Amino acid sequence: MIAEIGQFVLILAFVLAIVQATFPLWGAARGDAGLMALADRTAIGQAAALIIAFAALTHGFVTSDFSLTIVFQNSHSLKPMLYKVSGVWGNHEGSMLLWVLVLALFSAAVALFGSNLPPTLRARVLAVQAMVGGAFLAFIIFTSNPFDRLVPAPPDGNGLNPLLQDPGLAFHPPLLYLGYVGFSMAFSFAVAALIEGKVDAAWARWVRPWTLAAWAFLTAGIALGSWWAYYELGWGGWWFWDPVENASFIPWLFGTALLHSAIVVEKRDALKSWTILLAIITFSMSLLGTFLVRSGVLTSVHAFATDPERGIFILAILAVTVGGALTLFAWRALSMQGGGLFAPVSREGALVANNMLLTVAAGTVLLGTLYPLIIEALSGGTQRVSVGPPFFNATFGPIMVPLVILVALGPLLAWKRGDLRAAAHKLVPAAIAAVVAIIATFLLVPGGPVLAPFAMGLAAWLAGGATAEWAGRIKLFSAPLAESRRRLAGLPRSASGMTLAHLGLAIMIVGITGSSAWRAELITTLEPGQSAEGAGYTITLTDVTRDRGPNYNFERGTILVTDDGREVATLIAERRFFPVANQTTTEAAIHTTWLADLYGVIGERGRTPETANAWTVRFFVNPLVPWIWLGAMVMVLGGFLSLTDRRHRVGAPRRARSAAPQPAPAPAE
Predict the structure, then answer these.
(1) In angstroms, rounded to a whole number, what is the distance separating the alpha carbons of residues 74 and 53?
(2) Domain residue ranges in the chain
(3) What mean pLDDT value characterizes the chain?
(4) CA–CA separation, 409 vs 427, rounded Å?
(5) H or E element that contains 558
(6) Which end of the chain has fewer CB atoms surrounding its CB within 10 Å, N or C?
């Protein structure tokens, strides 16, 4: 009965989406306040209906209702409760229901907290949101219904993919969707502005907090997914330029560009058309990522391989949504010329360069991701090529160097016309820090790639520049401490949030450089009691035990790590076998000092008589790799700190009403 309620409210949400997508648009065109107000009510109603539907599906998983096809295919009675709940979105149908639920929640947030928006703009924004939501609700109802029944109900289920039975991946999809789908708000604001034919500073102020929230959530989701890949897949790395990884990274790059571009619209009334286009492209890349993951065209540990017919449906949604928005943009773009002029050397100029570099970087990743698919499609499947880390490292890395230099320089330039010499003077401490970092790295770590010390210097440059800009705002060391404290109390939180985000990026660069340049590994075969030397340590496989977990069997290996006879760490790694799924996973053992990770994995047991009592052991030393996720956390913290800025809480000032035209004076007699 509960599943039938879920089915009913899912259809109800679809009907409400149709109403929300049509009548408020008509009301905005006619100036009918009643029809425009309908957008708020239907948005809240649609969100409530989808909350009930999602709760009904969750109930099916928690109670192991195997009469539901989705529960039978993705759950098992022996599964721990955490993974019964995360199994709701650990599959195609449930994840799409979560997708539309997040979309509806964003719409409801606009309806509840967007009272400062002009009624016509709010009605149009919510109508566009409903168009997207309605399309995906149709997709769910007609091709991916999560409430399909099995008759008779099986006694037990097939279980969830063992790779997904992990706390990190349990929370990764919701965070990712809050980012993916959150960019729909920027898209809806952009399309609504195109319909109205008006983009101004107030519009930018309204769209920025939604974009910032989506960016922060997407950053957290990508970082959590990277962390999961690091400790769960057992290969010792944190990023492989996997196509599905790229599918989330591409909208993040475009979203970062959008976030900076919207600042120029708000502050200088410039880059209007470009900002609108970025809003469309960013959400389009989110839809493209949804297509790649859900269409079955990609094979990945992250992807849900599904019926290609579903991919065609999503591709049609993508074509109509993106094609319609770009057509509207082509019609309206010329009428949205920016009024703020600026010199090339200015903060606006630096942000434009920032946007260009981010866009080129995103385009490079997009090309590398889609190129194998394009070649395979054009050749009818007879030719297959792969584009891997060597391509992305060789193309993406060089683009980031000038970008990082600009990130430190840009905030120190004035609006409209900047003084490059004055900004350079403020960056002298950052330049000194960069030189010190380069020299120190050469002396302390003489091995490794020759460019690695320069990457560390680049990180020091960015951190020094961000700190110098923040210190200059509060006149640290140039005014009495009491004056600096007073200035800090009055400093907008968005300024401190920007500083934190830039510092987080610097920390990430340190982690990426260290883990890439000085990583060491040892792969060997050991019997219990045997030792091997490599990666600067001696490792000993002390013992291997076997036991049972809640829904798996495991082999647990204890690896003793010593340095010149001194015990450094004891690593306990597992190799798990899930009988229901007939699949094996690895559980890496990690000992971190925050300067490096000691990373151990136990592999397969030997299959020959000579190796029957030996196991493959992989041991990695990953310098500075924890700094990657520390930097990501600092970036996310900066994003959320910026969201608490009073200007975002209060909202944008209301647009001034146009003065009523005065009647022409009567002609003199």
Answers:
(1) 18
(2) 1-165, 167-413, 414-518+628-636, 520-626
(3) 91
(4) 8
(5) strand 553-563
(6) C
Q: Is the peptide bond before 152 cis (omega within 30 degrees of 0)?
A: yes
- Choose among 94, 154, 75, 167: nearest CA to 551: 75
Residues 6+ apart with CB under 8 A from 590: 231, 571, 597, 598, 599, 600
Please give the angle made by the CA atoms of 537, 541 and 544, to the nearest 5 degrees: 155
In which element (H, E) is residue 575 found?
Answer: strand 566-578
The first and second tokens of residue 523, run together, are 């792969």
Contact yes or no for 555/602 (Cβ under 8 A): yes
Q: Quick check: helix, strand or coil at residue 23?
A: helix
- Relative orientation angle of helices 33-62 and 92-113, to the nearest 10 degrees: 140
Structure token digits, residue 537: 């340590």
Second-level CATH architecture of 1-165: Up-down Bundle (1.20)
SS3 call for 78: coil
23-70: pLDDT as tens digits: 999 999 999 999 999 999 999 999 999 999 999 999 999 999 999 999
Question: pLDDT tens digits for 278-308?
Answer: 999 999 999 988 888 766 565 554 455 456 6
What does the pLDDT average to over 122-136? 97
Residue with token string 């039978």? 72
Handedness of CA 236, 241, 244, 247 (dihedral sign): positive
Backbone angles phi, psi at 118, to 5 degrees: -60, 140
Handedness of CA 519, 369, 230, 458 (dihedral sign): positive
Q: Which two tokens stand for residue 384?
A: 């297959």
CA dist., res. 333 & res. 276, Å (int): 9
Q: Which two tokens stand for residue 273?
A: 């058309």
Provide the sign of the torsion angle of the four alpha carbons 54, 59, 60, 61, taken in this order.
positive
Q: What is the pTM of this model?
A: 0.92
Kind of pairing between the strands at 596-605 and 589-592:
antiparallel
DSSP state letters, 111-173: HHH-TTS-HHHHHHHHHHHHHHHHHHHHHHHHH--TT-B-SSPPSS-----GGG-SHHHHHHH
Q: Which of 212, 196, 329 is nearest to 266 (CA)?
A: 212
248 in Cβ contact with 222 (< 8 Å): yes
DSSP assignment string, 187-249: HHHHHHHHHHT---HHHHHHHHHHHHHHHHHHHHHHHHHHHHHHHHS-SS-S----HHHHHHH
Determine the Cα–Cα distance for residues 40 and 19; give it in Å rounded to an integer. Answer: 11
C-alpha dist (Å) from residue 277 to 248, 370, 657: 19, 21, 27
Do residues 641 and 493 lie in contact, with contact meaning Cβ atoms separated by under 8 Å?
A: yes
DSSP, residue by residue, 446-511: -SS-TTHHHHHHHHHHHHHHHHHHHHHHHTTTTS-HHHHHHHHHHS-HHHHHHHHHHHHHHHHHHH
What's at 80, amino acid-wise? P
